[in-house]
Predict the structure.
Amino acid sequence: AQSVTQPDIHITVSEGASLELRCNYSYGATPYLFWYVQSPGQGLQLLLKYFSGDTLVQGIKGFEAEFKRSQSSFNLRKPSVHWSDAAEYFCAVGGNTGGFKTIFGAGTRLFVKA
Amino acid sequence: KAGVTQTPRYLIKTRGQQVTLSCSPISGHRSVSWYQQTPGQGLQFLFEYFSETQRNKGNFPGRFSGRQFSNSRSEMNVSTLELGDSALYLCASSSVVNTEAFFGQGTRLTVV
């Protein structure tokens, strides 16, 4: 069955510190992987995506993620967090299953302290 | 290029009523998906439409239904509303199967 696990419900980091949000997935075929960010009361914005090729993917707002097939992981990283990065982050997996269906993780709430 | 538009943004309904939510995808996008977001269950997939056909469906009761029109606009209907249906309903559109979904700002439904 397709699933996405984000083991950290919430994370607190200091402004300027580095960030890593964890994501593990279970998918029967070649996955398409995404990270989205959601600010309070808003929809989801795509940060980055992985379909194939280079396993290190660059996204918007200085984020990057690394696909590790052997670990079924797609962790999100940022070298220096800004206060405006405080939001909820969702990892998601999709694929060619005869239709468009994206499965989301439960999300990780990021708090940034001054 | 206009984004995904969902109307209305906020809605209050009474238990037992029915509700219809609307989603206008990005121009040229033919796939429209619906999600329910609640604090307890997170983001759950409802269904996906492509060229007026439902291609995928999540694990929701038959009270939740949808449709897509020839211009790709989509509506979602929930009948016999329950308190547990209170949620943020998000619509997403995409241009090609399995590319990223572009989300609207959602409709906040409150059932009282």
The longest strand of chain A covers residues 87-94. Residues 32 and 51 of chain A are 5 Å apart (CA to CA).
